[in-house]
Amino acid sequence: MIAAAALPLLLTSLAACGYGSQATKDNASGPVAASGKKLSANSVTIGYFANVTHATALVGVQQGLFQKQLGGTQLKTQVFNAGPSEVEALNSGAIDIGWIGPSPAINGYIKSKGKSLKIISGATSGGASLVVNPNKIKSESDLKGKTIATPQLGNTQDVALLNYLAGKGYKEDPTTGKGDVTVTRIDNKTTVTAFQQGQIDGAWVPEPTASQLVAAGARTLIDEKSLWPGGQFVTTNVVVSQSFLAAHPDVVQAVLRGSVQANAWIKANPEAAKSAINAQLQALNGKPLPGKVLDSAFGNIEVTDDPLASTLQQEATHGVAAGLLKQPDLKGIYDLTPLNAVLKSEGKPQVSDAGLGS
Question: Under the phi-then-psi rule, with left for phi > 0, alpha for psi from -120 to 50, and beta for the rest, what region is 193?
């Protein structure tokens, strides 16, 4: 149970949203064919982003790996721009399972006093960078007075930027984004255009947006991997509604089998995986990524079943430093029992919850 003092700093008028963020309009895909024996639920809805950092979900959907494991239970999907709006959807029952960054997962868990969600798997490490206009920003000292974008207030990259700025002595209002550096929250889909039009001077964003900005003339000032020991940190987890997990553990385990198979396939078939990712991005966005951008974005991520739980507490500490969170008690945020059962059945090593399990 979370201590009562462990509450995030929220805007009262936006208290229903992660870290005070406003929900975005999300797009639901059409149904995917289901066949075979139905599990305990008629359907399951998963949420994810049209980002390369969500490669597991993109490939799992595109290759039919989730639906194969679900049999006659219908797979439905919903696509989001960033994590806080996905947590809202999970809390409302609009989705059951979601691929999401650590900061919104932490915030959702804390706000619900440990009752809303559980982290049940890892998905991706790496794949986030601060990229900037090289004519205006040559070093961290040049950030003062500049405008830097993130995908959404309180999302994982937003927290990373605010934490970084705080560590460098910059003063910021975390909710408004005003301060020594102006932090503006805009949809990843419009970030490149905003950069090209001079509306922003840089962005701390996930892949492929970071590589798209570099292709548009930006340069990488900070690859977030450089800020973490061993270059590993959780970028994307898999979370589940606790009520759905309790009611339909067989469905959750089926999705996790699909997730593990997707990660194994991506590692074994990187070129085919890039094609599958791009095909799904084209279906979602209307156009594929250019080859150079895709190669760069894919090369910057690592898919992993391991949720890298030892890095989650540090992610929470970043939220505290950013001024968006009071120091939380994350005990119980993980339930890796279903994942470890899948891994055992596949002959793969078990993964640890770093003492933060139920």
Answer: alpha
